[in-house]
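Allow me, if you will, to draw on your knowledge of protein folds for a short while. I have a record of one protein: its chain in single-letter code and its fold written as discrete structure tokens. Kindly check, if you would, that the fold set down in the tokens agrees with what the sequence suggests. Thank you for your consideration; the sequence and its tokens are set out here:
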Amino acid sequence: MTNASYQNPKIRKHYDVVFPIVNTIILIVLMFVTLYPVINTVAYSFNDGTDALKGGIGLWPRMFSTNSYSTILRDSAVYRAAWISASKTVIITILNLFWTSMLAYTLTRKEYVLRKLITTMLVLTMYINAGLIPNYLLISRTLHLRNTYWVYIIRSAAST
């Protein structure tokens, strides 16, 4: 297609009509593919437990029941886990904002001599990770933080 034919009002109008239709169809399909697993999981959660073992539940539960939710919410471990997750998120966010802003301010100073070296070291630690086992050994043997609350905080607050 040449540039002159694209400027033709009849052809241009054709493209202006086709693109929104195709775009809408593609986005609706993507929305369904994305939302179906979530809706299916919610349907399983509201279905009776013994009936859910049979499978075949689609977008709506066959035998509606809230027994799963009442069983989970009676357990105090759920509230403790929710508290740990929420407090960990707040503390880590505050600490990361604090440390990152201090480091960013320092590294933006052109007169700072070690700026390029420290930036290179930080970028390399993001690309090259020690792995799961060395991190576990560091936490459990060296720092003695296994089965403590601080294992979440210290490790995440010192990350790049």
In short: Residues 96 and 157 are 6 Å apart (CA to CA).
